[in-house]
Amino acid sequence: MNITRENIDKLNAVVKVDIAKDDYAPKVEKILKDYRKNANIPGFRKGHVPMGMVKKQYGQAVLVDEVNKLLQENLNKYLTEEKLDVLGNPIPKEQEDFDWNKDEYTFEFEIGLAPEFEVDLDLEKPVAKYNIVADDKMIDSQIESIQKQYGKLISKEEVEEGDIVAGTFKNEEEGIENETSIELEKIKGKRNLNKFVGAKAGDVITLKTKSLFEDDHDLQQQLKVEHDKAHDLDIEVEFTISEVNKRELADLDQELFDKLFGEGKVTSVTELKEKIKEDAEKQFTQQSDQQLMNDVTEALIEKTDFELPKEFLQKWIRTVGEKPLTEEEAVEEYEKSEKGLRYQLIEGKIVKEHDIQVDFEALKAFAKEKIKEQMAQFGQMDPADKELDDIAARILSNQDEVKRLSEQLVNEKLLNFYKENMKFDEKEVTYDDFVKEIYN
């Protein structure tokens, strides 16, 4: 067998594979002999079928199968040994006059080569790095939310602002009949709110659905209608009041603190605020880190300019899926995926040049940390090491989980690398300001 390569340009090449009879004949002969031993053909005893008949019936199928195996094994070996950084997979070139009845065969493959380029982390316009802080307004709002959650409802006769009103929405034409509870603070507009104020159990209120709630999702939930329907729904509904309640906020006392954080972990309102601030900013860090990663990715793609074997990749995309694509579909798919491919190459270069690796022990430690975070959400704050080791072992026995966790860990290591090696425009913002700035 002989394998040669012809470079068309820096990004495209053709690999030629010559296969001689000596490369495949011994294997084909052995397989056919095994077939002969086990063949059950009427008129012949098992193991005594003429070899000519076996070759006539199975010969070419075995030949094609063995040549293809040889071809794939040796082509992959060649690409590995030559250290060729290929994009996609080799595409076989069509041969109109190919003949399996010959003794020697030649196959040609088009390959796309990864470009050579350098990654410069020194950006002309530094990326924003957000430090999101929990301000007093957010902390107070969170405390009020906790007090409502752990508070109690007190029944009353007449509706006032801020009450919770139970009842049934109804519209026969639209098939709406849903029993629910409304927090009046979610009602939009003074006119709608005034229809409730002063009402009692048994009263029927007629309401227009358009702009009834501050959020369309609330209308969807209250009427139990589809999301798309709720968005443009403009009808009259009747709401029959069945019950009026006032929410009494829970006291900020030790009993509440222990329910929230465990016995004795928080002992005062000041400590409660500090804990809420700490937990909130920990969650904010995850969001700001994700935004930083997104922005660095975009900036590096924009700055790092290199050519790709575009035509080859579009041709490869046409053939790689279960269903072949048209030329137009392949061009569209390439345009969708080009940015991702560019960053994949940039990331791969950074990982290789700066030796960003993931070994098993690091992966195991990372898995245990993720398990601890999940357990903490369910109140298990201090799991034993053996329990963590056992759960981690089960997770890491699943190859899909290993791949997922490895990608997460590499992503985390890359983010830390960027933080250490790039200059950023540091911004301290509240969460509301962060949302306004990012999502406009």
UniProtKB/TrEMBL annotation:
Top-level taxonomic group: Bacteria
Classification of source organism: Bacteria, Pseudomonadati, Bacteroidota, Flavobacteriia, Flavobacteriales
EC id: 5.2.1.8
InterPro entries: Trig_fac, Trigger_fac_C_sf, Trigger_fac_ribosome-bd_bac, Trigger_fac_ribosome-bd_sf, Trigger_fact/SurA_dom_sf
Major enzyme class: isomerase
Family matches, as Pfam families: Trigger_N
Annotated source species: Zunongwangia endophytica
Keywords annotated in UniProt: Isomerase
Trigger factor ribosome-binding bacterial domain ranges (all copies): 1-145
Gene coding for it: tig
Protein name (record): Trigger factor
GO molecular function, one term: peptidyl-prolyl cis-trans isomerase activity
